[in-house]
Design a protein that fits this description.
- It is a single chain.
- The chain has eight helices and nine strands.
- It has helices at residues 42-49, 79-82, 88-94, 107-119, 135-149, 165-180, 214-217, 221-235; strands at 4-13, 16-26, 31-35, 57-62, 71-74, 153-157, 184-188, 200-203, 210-213.
- A six-stranded mixed beta sheet has the order 5-6-7-3-8-9, with helices on both faces.
- The termini are far apart.
- The model has no long low-confidence stretch (mean pLDDT 89).
Length: 236
């Protein structure tokens, strides 16, 4: 059974629907890129899947033993978040909250945070202020925080926003390595270069959405149109 199954899903802010007829599933090991025009409802879909807001229509079903606490989430960063006054260790540790109860972090939670910082090569930054890091380093910190909650499924909303090309390549490689090690990825992106890493693509439209394996999507009219619009936007 799939981790998440979305059936005839419509998302938006009731009574206004921004995208509907969304049908797809996330299985263990999948790497799904969510694409579409600006304002198509991609981020709204992510918030609905995470139960941060209610679906307008349809259903979202969890399976294969996945619980809501086992979904790691990396939202789009705001300028305020980039200037958050905390150390790297404090931010990564906060990701373990779903695994503990009480007012203090347990030895196990602290060890989980240390392990994640080691895995994402930011252990040497543990005592540094988050606000003083580069954009790429900040995204590694937030990925480590998300991984403290789960190694099953990561939901990423425009993770390369504001990153330079070098940091973008590093982050894509890191996400690809996590996926190769068994973590499923659901990633909203405006960068069509990201599709090279995907196993599937969900193209969100207002009236209906398309879910295909990557190679099939790259031959679809939806991709050809979106790619042309992206190219035209860069040339203008």
């Amino acid at each position: 059974m799939a981790y998440i199954t979305c059936t005839d899903l419509a998302v938006g802010y009731s009574p206004y629907i921004v995208a509907k007829e969304i049908n797809f599933e996330i299985n263990k090991g999948d790497y799904i890129c969510v694409v579409g025009e600006n304002g198509a409802g991609k981020s709204t879909l992510m918030k609905t899947i995470l139960h941060l807001q209610s679906a307008c229509e349809g259903s979202i079903t969890l399976g294969d033993g996945l619980t809501p606490r086992e979904i790691g989430y990396l939202p789009q960063q705001t300028l305020v978040q980039r200037d958050f006054p905390a150390t790297v260790r404090e931010i990564v540790l906060s990701g373990t909250i779903t695994k503990g109860f009480g007012f203090f972090y347990s030895k196990e939670q602290k060890q989980t945070a240390e392990n994640m910082m080691e895995q994402l090569h930011i252990a040497d930054l543990a005592s540094q202020s988050y606000r003083q890091l580069s954009g790429g380093q900040q995204q590694r910190v937030l990925l480590a925080r998300a991984l403290c909650a789960t190694d099953k499924l990561l939901v990423l909303d425009e993770p390369i926003s504001g990153l330079d090309p070098s940091a973008t390549d590093e982050l894509y490689q890191l996400i690809s390595e996590l996926n190769a090690n068994g973590t499923s990825i659901l990633m909203v992106t405006h960068d069509l270069n990201a599709l090279q890493y995907a196993s599937h693509v969900l193209h969100v439209n207002k009236d209906s959405s398309l879910f295909l394996e990557r190679d099939a999507y790259l031959e679809s009219k939806n991709y050809i149109k979106l790619n042309k619009e992206e190219s035209d936007g860069m040339d203008s």
